[in-house]
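Anyone else keep sequences and structure tokens together like this?

Example one:
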Amino acid sequence: MTEDSQALMDETLSLQPFELHYGEALPDAKIAFRLMGNPEGPVVAVLGGISAHRIVTGAPGEGWAITRAALAHERSQSQREDSIADAVRRLVSIAQDNAGTGRGESADSSDVRRRIGAFFARAQVSDLLGFKALLKSAQGLESVGDSPVSKVVFTETNLDIATYALELQGPRGVLDAEDPNVVDAGRWQEAFLYARGFTISAGSNEIMRNLISERALKLPRDPAK
């Protein structure tokens, strides 16, 4: 274990009782976990193993269906922490602050206004897709393409917004959070790094596109090479 990956916290979560989806319950379930890495975005490592006398969640043969459903919820919820429409509004603030300073492109430019307007439209689509998937899931009407489409649209829009935010900052875009001249306390630099990770987490966008094409649109698989 390196210094960067030392444990931040060891915890045991007790669930009494732990209700299973088919109506039964475990009377005394405990889950041991450890938070690792960056405190702002730690990795959760679950500790322990599977008992030989385990109680199985779901009926035999349903494992993949349960796993896919859990991943679908993770993908559809990956964007719920912060609306990217709000991120676009923060882009507007950067562009307005640049006016007359020469520090970077400003809201005086028609090209800047056009690009920010396009980002806002994409952000609205992303937010509405996530809301649609959530409503369909609550009613048991979700389809196989809902979560992958929401995930791809959100993560790629989010990455493009964060990238453009650094472009708008001009030379200040390379500053870190400790520099007194950094914009917004360095939140955009951190957002840019996390945005790339979002395109990989919960299933990379390349895999999501395969799910959309093969399972949702029923297109033929790529021929084996």
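And example two:
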Amino acid sequence: MTDPPQQPDATPAARTAPGLHWGLKRSFLTYIARQPDGRCSVTDGADLDADGRFLFAFADPAAPGDRELRLCGELRFAAHHGMLFVRIAAPRLVVEDARGQLFAQVGLEEDAPHVVLATFAVPDRSVALSGPWTGTGLTLTDDGAEVFGGVYDVGEPLDDFIVVPAPAPPGTTDS
């Protein structure tokens, strides 16, 4: 990895591919990119979007109004000859009212339990979960801070994300 992904645009209209578009944390990505042995892998349903952010595909079709979105994909970051290792896999977003939690599998085990990595706000509930929407004000939880080896404190900000829903199947409507 040589350059960190770019920061998200302010509007969800910039995204077209369905899924979660998330830059994670720019300073972390910059740090990994600057390490001689810094590595990033994006696999298992994750990809990079047109703006260089991580794109997690939907694991299950999401229906308008769903309060939990399951995604697939895995990010792995390594540096310092393996002394730094971060895995974020199979994220889930759970939204209740105008707040949400971002869960992810962490650690080396493929069947690791999901932990709450971060919390976030959903500023515009009128579009949340039925059209493109943005999660803002992401902050690390206790478990999230532990994922990064205690380098970041609880409450450390992460990058905002954008969710673009999959198009409705032919013959269906959103209402």
